[in-house]
Amino acid sequence: MKKRTLLALSLALGLGSQAFAATEITFLYGLGGPLGERVVEMVNAFNRSQNDVVVRAEHAGNYDLVLQKALAGIAAGQPAGDVLQLEVSLYTRLADAGQLADLSKMPGFMDQYNGLWGVFKNQAKRPSGYFASPWNNSVPVLYANQELLAKAGVRAIPKTWAEVRDAARKIKAATGVPAINMPADTWLLEAGLLSNGVELIKNGRLQLDQPGAIEVLTFWQDMMREGNVMMDGPNVAAEFASGRLAMRFGSVATRTELNQTVKFPFTAGPVPYFKTPGVTTGGAVLAIPKAVPTARQQAAWKFISWLNQPAQQATWIDKTFYLPVSRTTVSTPAFQTFLKSGKGLDAGYRQLPNAKPRPTAPNYPQVQADIVKALQELYLRNAPVEATMKNLADRTAPLFKDVK
């Protein structure tokens, strides 16, 4: 009798466990290296925190490959993942095509949305709905070798580009090393233009041939000609780490790498500006494909919502140095403790009040290589600024004819 009772009980428990089995979902992410390891740590922490959802982390390789796999999944009628980590300037391609779930229908989304910094609200919202939840977001900052700056008598990281130019002359004269790597990528270009009152894409074309942009690019070209700076490129990280470059640009998350490679005291400051501070936010958002079944969408949202709780944000920031996407996180004791753990750790979030989302024009990603090539022409071959930028703006105008 006792054995029958135990058997009946175990069968009942078995049936119960099947009825309430955890929902398994896939998180397709793009970050690699140490940051990718931190992603897996957060996934494991979520899985340990509850019994309803099991997240399987799948590394796509990089952000571009996340998008490629997502597009392939759409074509095949089988979502590549239940949660996608999409680069901020790429996710709109899926959102505007109607391929992402509207998160405003998820429980608690609007409460989380209302707590975001303004720039992240703009990032998450599209004309037809709310299709993204900001997560690993970043802004560029300027890292500095404190020993080299002190040797040159530069007491603080320059705040404006005029101050950068003056500091560059002093640093090169006192130390013999280049002062800074010149902006030669679209992210820093966006910041430079924004700080001089120029949006990169507007009125149906690139604004690189407009007076405000010409002023920025001429200033940077003149700095390059003076010989106190170095061209941006793959050697910048090694040059800075070895003390052969005084200042370098990077993401707030670059500090993860610097903590491993740099042996001298360093700090960070906001990106220099021309007239007023301004940067664009990079990184990635989290999204749910619309074709994911309802039960898995709900499970995916539970995971995303957990990641965006202030306590989890603070843990994520402490591991990766990414930005606090919500204002509430900034006031938590954990975040305040984090700020005191290293020099210049506030350089990123201090820029959020002046930040804007990166351009989201559908064809922007495909012209970024052309923009970088044009910048290299200015710096390395002294190409005429106005003619080079007008040619680029005219040539790419058909791609942006629908951008207001």
UniProtKB/TrEMBL annotation:
<keyword id="KW-0762">Sugar transport</keyword>
<dbReference type="Pfam" id="PF13416">
    <property type="entry name" value="SBP_bac_8"/>
</dbReference>
<feature type="signal peptide">
    <location>
        <begin position="1"/>
        <end position="21"/>
    </location>
</feature>
<dbReference type="InterPro" id="IPR006059">
    <property type="entry name" value="SBP"/>
</dbReference>
<dbReference type="InterPro" id="IPR050490">
    <property type="entry name" value="Bact_solute-bd_prot1"/>
</dbReference>
<keyword id="KW-0813">Transport</keyword>
<keyword id="KW-0732">Signal</keyword>
<protein>
    <submittedName>
        <fullName>ABC-type sugar transport system, periplasmic component</fullName>
    </submittedName>
</protein>
